[in-house]
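Subject: sequence -> structure tokens, single chain

Hey, anyone have a minute? Need the predicted structure for the following. Not urgent.
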Amino acid sequence: YHRFSENMGGKDLVAHWERCIQLSAEPFIWLFSDDDLMPADGVERVMEALSRPHHQRGYFFRFPLAVIDGENKRIRANRPLEEGSVSCYRLLLDKLQGKIDSAAVEYVFSREIWQSAGGFVHFPMAWCSDDATWATFARHAGGVISLPGQPVCWRNVEGANISNSAGHDKDKLHATILFLRWMRNMFSDYVDDPELISALQCYIHTILRISLHKHYNICGLWGYLWLWEDL
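Reply:
Had a minute. Here:
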């Protein structure tokens, strides 16, 4: 354990992730909160995957994910993962379309991938930073390798993080717009893909209705889509 003199996570969570990694020297990284739950065979599955031949340009693994509450009761879970790898574009589409939840704890990556990708993508309050980062890592690795089996459990306690809090809605809206700009640059070859356009509409609708607690009019959905055309 390391005790920092400054609570950086309260104002720049991504910078806190970065400084934690910089304190370490191990070749593989698994970001874990102290109240999340690892499957009993989690490390074994990573080691087994490392022993198999693969065609990726680096190591980037993904566990199944379940969301639990403060009493360890399962709230929901992603669909089971199949053997093989998923492209960065498919991973992004699944997130935008609401087919999956996503949390840092479900991913294991090599230090090499983290370095070659330039670290994490920074957005205010780390909102959307993880989704942008995983897509970036998957692009650098040539895909994300699935580790089927029991899920990693991410704890989402009501009122305990900004996903459930209305106190940072302006920051979340700003970060969402930056995320759209990032996607426009990162996936410029796909801007006319009907599946991506539909996924973006679904994503922005969900952000405005749920994550931003309807504090921003849902009718403004189409107003935000101009960012996709003009940035």
